[in-house]
Every structure is written in structure tokens, then in C-alpha cells.
Amino acid sequence: MGRVIFVTGTDTNIGKTVYTGLLLARKLAAGMDVRAIKPFASGGRGDALLLQRLQGKRVPLEKINPWYFDEPLTPAIAAERAGVKISMREVLRYLVQAAGEVEELIIEGAGGLLSPLGKNFNAMDLIRAMKAEVHLVSMNRLGVLNQVLMAEGICRLSGVTADRVLLMEGKRADHSSESNIEYLKKRFGRKLVFIPWLGAAARSARGLEQAALQFDRGSQRLE
Fold first, then answer.
1. 27 is catalytic
2. pLDDT-derived band of residue 220, with 50, 70 and 90 as boundaries?
3. What is the pLDDT of residue 218?
4. How far apart are CA 201 and CA 54, in angstroms?
5. What is the mean pLDDT of residues 16-45?
6. Which entry of 16, 27, 38, 57 is annotated as an active-site residue?
7. What is the 3-state secondary structure (H, E, C) of the chain?
8. Would the pLDDT of 103 be above 90?
9. Which listed residue, of 73, 166, 179, 210, carries a Cα 20 to 30 Å from 189's Cα?
């Protein structure tokens, strides 16, 4: 099994798919043998479809997103209400198979580290079982310092390292934005990567491909 990156977040709707798409586009442009998947989705499959378009539709949607539920709820609850049982064993079997087909696998999680995904397991359980790198996505707004520090603390207590901390800029910066960057830079050093607001580019495969190339020409790199 090759390299496995698990993209998780401090909240929902904070840019996990944008970052996953940027990372995937950058690696594909470099000619790397990589795949991005989103095993769980609830309330819509737009994120998984975007990842599929970035991969030129070479990967069937069912392989990118095998567990989908109509209700916009955390996967474990959505599955229970839909009468579906999801075991950690079957999810790990799927992840190991996906990881064995490519040199690098990027897994976009649903929700945060402790969001229930199925019967008695969460994202942290999958991260530990897969020995995955953790890329922690957060939104640059008031409250993010507490969220990032709690998530990083959960990682440490679980014997896992937060390998990257991604600070995503929102459409409108608030009063805390600049000081958030300064504090997290002091705390995490080169592990911290700041992603500027991408606007409409974040909603299309072509936009993310162009943004990934432009981003890597700057002083920061996605990896």
C-alpha cells in the first residue's frame, strides 16, 4: 500500500473538497499516480462529482463515493435512518483496495475527526488503521484557533501527527483573520498552509487545476 493522505476538518463546509481538489490537481499535473476519493457523502454528491471530473471521469463515481445518503446528516445517523449498516471492516476493505491500486490515495473525510461514520467508528479510527497522514482543514474566522488546537490535541492523544494545517480564507475576512494566521504560523511553522479565497474557481475542475498551478508558484506549496 502506498502513501495515504486523509483530509479532515475542524467543521463542515469549510473547504475540505477545495483543498482535496487542489492537492489532487497539483499531483495529477506532476504526472503522479494518484486517486482522490470521498467515501461518505450525505445530502448531495457535488463534492464527489467534482473529484470525479478532476480525474477525467476515469474513476467511476461508485468507487469515489460508495456510501451516499439523501439526508444531510452525519453518515452514521443518515445510514441508520436509511436502514443501512456500515461496518469499519467493510470500509477498511474498500480503502485498502483503493490504496493498492495507486501510488498515492487522498481520502476526503466527512465532517471532523470524531464525526460518527458507521457503527462504533469515526475518521480517527480509519486514520489509525490506515496509518494515514493527516491534513487538517480549517476556516480562517473567529473561533478557529480553539478548533485547530482541539483537533490537533485529539490527534496527539490518539498517537497521530497533524502533518498539515490548512487555513482556508473565507469570502470576507473578519477582524481575527490576520492574527489567526500569525498565531498558527508560530504554533505550526511550515506545517501551516494558507489557502486564499478562490471564488468561482473553487466550483469547477478547470478552476481548481489553474489555481493549483498558480498556488505552487508562490512562496507556499501545497505539500
1. no
2. low
3. 57
4. 13
5. 97
6. 38
7. CCEEEEEEECCCCCCHHHHHHHHHHHHHHCCCCEEEECCEEECCCHHHHHHHHHCCCCCCHHHHCCEEECCCCCHHHHHHHCCCCCCHHHHHHHHHHHHHCCCEEEEEEEEECCCEEECCEEHHHHHHHHCCEEEEEEECCCCHHHHHHHHHHHHHHCCCCEEEEEEECCCCCCCCHHHHHHHHHHHHHHHEEEECCCHHHHHCHHHHHHHHHHHCCCCCCCC
8. yes
9. 210
What is the predicted pLDDT for the residue at 125? Answer: 98
For range 132-141, the mean pLDDT? 98
Instruction: List own/partner pairs for 176-183 with CB under 8 A and 24 or more apart.
Output: 176/140, 176/141, 176/142, 176/144, 177/140, 177/141, 180/140, 180/141, 180/144, 180/145, 181/140, 183/145
Q: Which of 209, 38, 73, 117 is nearest to 49 (CA)?
A: 38
> Using H for helix, E for strand and C for coil, what is the string for 27-91?
HHHCCCCEEEECCEEECCCHHHHHHHHHCCCCCCHHHHCCEEECCCCCHHHHHHHCCCCCCHHHH
- CA separation for the pair 68, 138 (Å, rounded): 24
Q: Quick one: pLDDT at residue 5?
A: 98
Residue type, 201: A
Mean pLDDT of the chain: 95
